[in-house]
Amino acid sequence: MFILLCVLFITPLFGCAGIAETIEQTEHWRARANDAKLSAESDLAELVAQRESFPNDSSQAGLIDAVIARAQAKIAMLDAAIVHADMVLKEAQNPSDGLTKITTQLVPFLPVPAQAPLLLGAALLATIARSQQLKTGTKSIIQSIQHAMNNDEVFSSAFRANADTIRTIQTPLARRMVDRVQRS
């Protein structure tokens, strides 16, 4: 059903374009997102430079801090979109998931306007499923470490002794996941 909805909503975007043209258009959109990210990073650098000229207790500093936070969020969103677009394009061009492999075999029998949206939809579903598997696996690792810390005092004290080091090498996403699991 989801794939049918993808076909119905994505087909008007590409008209009668074939798979190659659709992938080319998708790569163009990805490049535009990358340009927007580079522009936002440049703007952020200017904002950070401006911010340094204000004392921490000034009202302008607070305003600039809020704009900096929004710029950082925009960059993170664009970065995530680019990474996901790369994953979808890679899966569409070199199928590795069963769903995408089957879809690749079926699309030659479909009308041209339905081929590209169906293939990209299958690639999108495959990358979403793979991301969910990674998230579930990561959560399991975090819970395993917590369980070991609760049951082994030596491990727990060694882990706590190195907590600062561990935190410094974790990605922001890893930190958020650890915090989320610890709260639940």
Q: Can you walk me through this structure?
A:
The protein has 184 residues and is mainly alpha-helical. The protein has one domain (10-151). Helix content is 86%, strand content 0%. It has helices at 2-14, 19-51, 59-93, 98-106, 112-151, 153-161, 163-169, 172-183. Helix 2 (19-51) packs antiparallel against helix 3 (59-93) and helix 5 crosses helix 6 (153-161). It starts with a helix and ends with a helix.
Chart the SSEs and their pairings.
Elements: H1 2-14, H2 19-51, H3 59-93, H4 98-106, H5 112-151, H6 153-161, H7 163-169, H8 172-183
Helix pairs in contact: 1-5, 2-3, 2-5, 3-5, 4-5, 5-6, 5-8
Keywords:
8 helices, 184 residues, mainly alpha, disordered N terminus, 0% strand
Number of helices: 8
- Please, what is the average pLDDT? 82
Q: How large a portion of the residues is in β-strands, by DSSP E?
A: under 5%
Mind describing the biggest β-sheet? none
Principal-axis shape equals flat
Structural class: mainly alpha
- Taking the alpha carbons of the first and last residues, their distance comes to 33 Å
Rounded Rg: 22 Å
The residue ranges in which pLDDT falls below 50 over 5 or more consecutive positions are 1-16
Q: What is the domain tally?
A: 1
The percentage helix is over 70%
Strand runs, count: 0
Order of helices and strands: HHHHHHHH
